[in-house]
Design brief:
The chain is 69% helix and 0% strand. By secondary structure, it is an all-alpha fold. It has one domain. α1 (3-19) packs antiparallel against α2 (29-47). The longest helix has 19 residues, at 29-47. The radius of gyration is 16 Å and the shape is elongated. 8% of the residues are buried.
Length: 97
């Protein structure tokens, strides 16, 4: 499989699984580290880079053409909050917020 196909699989499956339910998360440093580690594990495997190659995560993300998963989750949370704020007041989600 080529790199583009693997990246599409990542975007369709892995990224969705990592972001699943993140609307209500309060990300602590440990969770951020674990999310980044999962993302880096996938990219290292995709690009054929081992930890012994000692490449920085930033360089690996540039090669893969992807953003930091934590940054994406935080943007997703902001968009979700804006969406909830636009809801009618009788919606359960808005009442819970």
């Amino acid at each position: 499989m080529n790199k583009e196909t693997k990246l599409r699989i990542y975007n369709i499956t892995a990224k969705v699984a990592l972001k699943s339910g993140s609307e209500a998360w309060v990300l602590k440093k440990r969770e951020e580290q674990r999310l980044e580690a999962a993302q880096m594990k996938f990219f290292r495997h995709l690009l054929g880079i081992t930890k012994l190659d000692k490449e920085k995560n930033k360089c690996i993300r540039e090669k893969a053409g992807a953003d930091n998963i934590v940054k994406e989750i935080k943007q997703y949370q902001k968009k979700w909050l804006q969406h909830v704020q636009r809801m009618d007041t009788n919606r359960i989600t808005k009442q819970a917020l």
